[in-house]
Each structure stands twice: as C-alpha cells, then as structure tokens.
C-alpha cells in the first residue's frame, strides 16, 4: 500500500509539471514558429500565461522567441517582463545576448548591449558571447561589428587557443565572414594551442569543397580534421563518405589521437552510427587504449544505450575491469547513464559489482543519483537488474551515507520518497554522526525537506556527535532565519 501511494505521488507530480508546461502556449516552440504578433503574445499573457516560465532545460518564452526569429518588438516586450531581464540565465546559463548573437539578430544585439548586457559573459560551457555566436553559425557581419565596437578584441583567442575565424569557418560557405575577419587582422595560417588549423576546424560540418578552397590558399590539413568531423551539428552527423574522403583522398590517419588522448572510436561510440563504427573498427584502432583521464572506448559506449555495440567491443577486447582516474569502470558508467540492458550484460560478463570509485561510492550510489523524473522506467529496470545480481540496495556507502543522505544532498523530495519506498534507514547516521534530518537542517532552503523526512519517520530527538539536534542545526541555518521560516516543528 505504501509503495503504491508513493508511486501515485511521483506520478501526480510529474503530470502536474508536464501539464503546467503544455498549458502555457508561450512555452510551445510551435507557437513561436507561427511568428505571433505582439498583440497575440500580450493576449496570452493576459490569460495568465507566464512570460518568464522556464522548463526543465531552462528554456523560456524569450529564448524560444529569439531562436524562432520572432519580431524584435515581441522579444523586447518579453525581456522587459518581470522574471526576465537582460541578465537572466537560461539554457546552459546563456543570456539573451548570446541567443541573439547566435541567431544573427543584429538589432537585438545592439539593443541588449545598449541596455548593459555583458558582452564578456561566459555560459556554463565557458563560451563567451561572440565565440558561441561564431560556432553556432552566425554569418551576420553586423553582429560581429556591434560586439567589436562594444569592446571585444577581434584577435582574442578562445578555448584551446582557437580564433574567431576557426570557430566560424565551418558555417562560412561563401567566405564573407572569413574575408571580414581577415580584415580585422586574423590569418588563415593561424593555429590553435594544439597545432590545429583553420582547415581542420572547417571539417566539422563535412564541407569538403570548403576544405579544398582552404587548401588552395595554402592552409594545412592535419589528422585532427577527423576529430572535428565527428562533431557535426545538432541537426546533422557527418556520414561515412566524409571520413572516407578525409582518409583516402587526403591521407589522414584513422589511428590518430586527439589532445585528450582519445581515438576516433572514443568519440564515435558516444553517438553511435553502426556504419561509421564498423569502418573504424576495420582500421585496427587499439580498442584497449585509454584517454588521458583513463576512459576506455568500452566505458564511453557503456554510458550510452547501444547494447549491441557494447557486446561488439567486449568481443574484440575485454576491458571490463579497467578503471579511469576517478575509479569508475564500465559498469559504473552504465549504471549512471547507460541502459538497464547494458548493466545486465556487463554483470553477466563478469563486471565487479562491488567496485567503488575513488570517493568510496559504490554502484548503488551512481544508480540512485541517475534518477530522473522523465526516465522512471529505466530507473526501475536498473534496480531490478541490481537486485537480481544480489546487490544490497540499502547498504550505506563507505562514509555511512544512505539513500536518504544522498537524496537530501540533492534536495530532491522525489528521491527522499524513493529512498523510503526502497526501505532505507531514515535515521541512520553517517561517519560524522549526521542523520538525513540533520543534513537537511543544515542545507534546507525551506521547510519542505524537513517536514517530508519527519512525515516518513525521521526522529527529531537524535543528536550528532557534537550533541546537536536537527532543531539546533536548523536554528543555525542562515537561509531559514533570513527568510523567517519557522523551525519550531523540529522541537
């Protein structure tokens, strides 16, 4: 009965979140593809639909409007709404200026710069505004000019010493951006910090005629072009023909290694294409090779969803017991992000189910932390595989952390309820003497974590090794006190 009740709570929460998102037309990309007028957008807002709502990926109506090339009067109106603003962080912590620059919206870029948007801001990937715009395919010279006038140095270098010309070249089929950047002092013969050339960067989208044009201008092509070709784009992955020509026509080495110590197969197994993988498997690449972080090709494949690929790799070279620099094995990778079928296969092939990483975390830790509300079936399937292998799901980690402790660390009420459903000890103490309730009292931003734990049986009277109760710790929580959140219920 308790299990069914908790599952109903999970389901209700998921459906409620999904319903909220679907019910707001401003959060529907199709709405923006129709190029709505300002009056239409205002009408939806007047109906109570939020202009600042974000989804699980932190996209909001304004990012949808910018990326779908809505009119600037609409976009500016949205930016000015409460909850938005020029400094708001959205998907991958990008600001509206980054989205506008990538979309080639020069007028919006100028507006945002004028209003004080940070032209040097870096997103969660470390990409500054202009670098993201160049690599995303902006070909509007006015965007570059506006950013240069605002203070960006055209000759600045970015990740791995790449120039703007390198970042932009794959999209520059007519050479207009190239000629513009050359006029700003950049050079076709520049190389990045690893010796990679403009022609190497051009291989990203598989445009071989662009590479020919660069070669005709005296630009070198190196083996690293093969690695850029594996990148493709969000919409397109380069096919076998591109790699065959790079190898057979230009003589590039299929066994090459990139600056991270990866082979081409290290990368290709992350986004499996059977034809491509079979082609490179035929090139005698060392299947056992680890990259500089200790990751093998098998580990990378195990983190994905292609069980047949994992079977193929195991048949060619069994690196199932290899550890990377963090102490992770292929099984840990599979449990953390791969499929239940891969987890099952690795265990049946002899993977060590008692393995712990360098932090002392076992595979249950990695499985539990993989929980996602939109992937519950996979979570349960992995649970069944682990149980069938005789693994004690509720056993504490080396530091005494139980599933409840892990759930509290993530401040995730769904996971707290999941820990209860699985039978974890809600009053267990870690190596520092803290119960999950103690931990929650220290880090809680409101009273919901604490009240959920108490409702599930957490004992308020238990004390830490310093003789402190949850109430004592909660009284020291600055966030709770600053926000006037009462903790008297912990007495």
Order of helices and strands: HHHHHHHHHHHHHHHHHHHHHHHHHHHHH
CATH fold description of the domain at 401-491: Serine Threonine Protein Phosphatase 5, Tetratricopeptide repeat
Number of strands: 0
Q: Which runs of at least 5 residues are low in confidence (pLDDT < 50)?
A: 1-21
Task: Describe this entry's structure for a reader.
The protein has a domain at 401-491: Ankyrin repeat-containing domain (Serine Threonine Protein Phosphatase 5, Tetratricopeptide repeat), CATH 1.25.40. The protein has helices at residues 2-23, 29-33, 38-46, 61-67, 72-79, 96-102, 106-114, 129-136, 141-149, 164-168, 176-183, 198-202, 208-216, 225-229, 240-248, 264-268, 274-281, 297-302, 307-316, 330-337, 340-348, 363-368, 376-388, 403-409, 413-422, 436-443, 448-455, 470-475, 478-482. Helix 21 (340-348) packs parallel to helix 23 (376-388). It is 48% helix and 0% strand. The model is unreliable at 1-21 (pLDDT under 50).
Notable characteristics:
491 residues, mainly alpha, Serine Threonine Protein Phosphatase 5, Tetratricopeptide repeat, globular
Question: What is the topology?
Answer:
Blueprint: H1 2-23, H2 29-33, H3 38-46, H4 61-67, H5 72-79, H6 96-102, H7 106-114, H8 129-136, H9 141-149, H10 164-168, H11 176-183, H12 198-202, H13 208-216, H14 225-229, H15 240-248, H16 264-268, H17 274-281, H18 297-302, H19 307-316, H20 330-337, H21 340-348, H22 363-368, H23 376-388, H24 403-409, H25 413-422, H26 436-443, H27 448-455, H28 470-475, H29 478-482
Helix pairs in contact: 1-25, 4-5, 6-7, 6-8, 7-9, 20-21, 21-23, 24-25, 24-26, 26-27
Keywords: ANK repeat, Repeat, Signal
Protein name: Ankyrin repeat domain-containing protein
InterPro entries: Ankyrin_rpt, Ankyrin_rpt-contain_sf
